[in-house]
User: Which sequence fits this backbone?
């Protein structure tokens, strides 16, 4: 089942190692909260800010989740050292959008998708469903932050150890005015490709309307 | 737009007390499956729920195959799979890292949450699949997603699978938070000391068509606390909001709910807030109990496992008792000490997670 959606805002960020200009001090003025943010959370709140989105349903996606927190926990267990409670609370896949909800007092639904290479395809489908369900603007974010020591031992999927893509959707009865074409986004993790396809289709176009599968 | 109704037409599970029939027998006879274990932390005892010697991935396939056999389908080729899991394949990654002290032989695809849907897709050839990972609400959110897709007519058949295995990360992680009980957990008990981490697999077939075995999935909703990463809002705003919206989504009044299947982990914070939420929203005082005293907390599988329990409570018209409670902390909520047979029209099942992620699902006897 396909339905049509206005793509109101888009944003993307990537870096071979670390995204440096995430404007954290302005976006997250409370130091205690800022210090606790994971790299994924920093990218997520930056992208949400770039989309001018603070309140509403959020669908977040990541194929590999919170890699640094996970590595910290497993490393501590292996070394027979205490696990940081903060690392454990930051290890769940919904960490980044939860910090977004804390930051803005957003009490709407958060769903987190982790479907491997199909992650952003499923984020688009789930975001479309949430937009139809709530009949309101929904934020979709897909992010991979895998810049941890020795990641080169397993990383075969991306040149960018930190990358993210975001867009907001609003349901509409109007006809689609752009076509989304699937392509390979060289250097990016495949888990981001489907959303990058939408960004490419809407690049520079106001009032971009896309047809999305639910 | 006319919404399709959603029916739960087949299900099966595996937890530390066995399959679904064994699970319900354990719940009604108040026989916990929790064992006291030191294998994950040699210096600390922990009450854990394990289904060993059953192996996780072969059990995952077996449980799902039972659902297919109980269903009206020949195969799952026209069925969407929605998985809810909080740990995915991290247990295998742990084993490799502990042995080899590096990541070289960790397969990222076997580490990720999607390892579960990949395994089920290979075995059953689903039409499509998605995986949700919102910690302990993962499979409750999978049910919510499935309900909405069938409501809108995007799919006619959806299999929801909640699945999480025991692993060092979760056992030691909850220990680090200071919320693990060394004994069988005691939800809603005054002076309770914590939770039991457990493993579980639960699979449900949701369909547009009604059968003789159907229980209706009437409504669902989610909310965010926007309060703290691990502690719930002490005023229970998020828990109340998701239950209220789920009841509204079902087209019901709060007084229609006969039984609340609680998230009820046995931690101080969760149970106090959940009891307050139930007391505040359901002023007609429906029965409330947590079955985690029997199964432990199966994390991402809990929503699906407790959905099955909720369906069984409706089918058997028998309220699940609160095991391991001698003195309730909150005397305003209605905690049954024994199984109670009565007319049960509607049940609400709660799931709450890290990040203040809340989900409630409403089930009803088919009219």
Assistant:
């Amino acid at each position: 089942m396909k339905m049509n959606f206005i793509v109101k805002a888009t944003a993307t960020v990537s870096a071979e190692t670390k995204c440096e200009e995430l404007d954290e001090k302005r976006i997250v003025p409370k130091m205690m909260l800022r210090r606790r943010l994971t790299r994924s959370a920093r990218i997520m709140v930056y992208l949400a800010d770039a989309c001018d989105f603070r309140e509403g349903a959020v669908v977040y996606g990541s194929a590999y989740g919170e890699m640094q927190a996970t590595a910290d926990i497993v490393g501590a267990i292996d070394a027979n050292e205490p696990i940081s409670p903060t690392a454990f609370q930051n290890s769940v896949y919904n960490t980044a959008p939860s910090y977004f909800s804390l930051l803005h007092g957003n009490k709407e639904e958060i769903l987190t998708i982790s479907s491997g290479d199909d992650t952003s395809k499923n984020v688009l489908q789930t975001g479309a469903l949430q937009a139809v369900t709530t009949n309101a603007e929904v934020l979709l974010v897909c992010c991979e932050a895998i810049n941890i020591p020795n990641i080169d031992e397993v990383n075969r999927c991306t040149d960018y150890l930190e990358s993210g893509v975001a867009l907001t959707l609003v349901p509409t009865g109007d006809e689609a005015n752009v076509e989304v074409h699937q392509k390979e986004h060289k250097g990016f993790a495949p888990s981001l490709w489907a959303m990058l396809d939408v960004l490419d289709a809407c690049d520079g176009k106001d009032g971009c309307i896309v047809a999305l599968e639910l | 737009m006319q919404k399709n109704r959603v029916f739960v037409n087949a299900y099966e599970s595996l937890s530390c007390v066995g399959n679904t029939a064994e699970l319900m027998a354990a719940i009604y006879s108040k026989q916990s499956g929790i064992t006291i274990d030191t294998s994950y932390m040699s210096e600390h005892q922990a009450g854990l729920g394990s289904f060993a010697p059953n192996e996780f991935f072969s059990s995952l396939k077996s449980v799902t195959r039972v659902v297919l056999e109980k269903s009206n389908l020949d195969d799952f080729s026209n069925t969407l799979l929605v998985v809810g899991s909080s740990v995915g394949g991290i247990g295998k990654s742990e084993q490799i890292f502990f042995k080899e002290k590096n990541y070289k032989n960790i397969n990222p695809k076997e580490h990720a949450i999607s390892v579960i849907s990949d395994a089920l897709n290979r075995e059953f050839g689903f039409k499509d699949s998605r995986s949700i990972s919102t910690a302990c609400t993962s499979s409750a959110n999978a049910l919510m997603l499935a309900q909405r897709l069938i409501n809108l007519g995007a799919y006619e058949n959806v299999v929801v699978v909640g699945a999480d295995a025991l692993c060092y990360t979760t056992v030691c992680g909850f220990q680090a938070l200071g919320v693990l009980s060394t004994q069988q957990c005691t939800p809603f008990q005054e002076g309770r000391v914590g939770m039991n981490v457990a493993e579980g697999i639960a699979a449900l077939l949701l369909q547009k068509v009604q059968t003789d075995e159907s229980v209706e999935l009437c409504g669902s909703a989610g909310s965010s606390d926007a309060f703290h990463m691990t502690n719930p809002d002490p005023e229970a705003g998020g828990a109340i909001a998701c239950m209220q919206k789920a009841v509204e989504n079902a087209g019901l009044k709060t007084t229609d709910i006969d039984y609340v299947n609680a998230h009820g982990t046995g931690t101080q914070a969760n149970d106090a807030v959940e009891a307050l939420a139930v007391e505040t929203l359901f002023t007609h005082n429906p029965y409330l109990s947590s079955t985690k005293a029997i199964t432990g907390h199966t994390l991402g599988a809990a929503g699906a496992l407790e959905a099955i329990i909720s369906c069984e409570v409706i089918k058997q018209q028998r309220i699940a008792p609160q095991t391991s409670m001698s003195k309730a902390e909150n005397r305003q909520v209605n905690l049954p000490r024994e199984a109670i047979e009565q007319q049960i029209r509607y049940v609400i099942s709660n799931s709450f997670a890290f990040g203040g992620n809340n989900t409630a699902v409403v089930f009803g006897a088919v009219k």
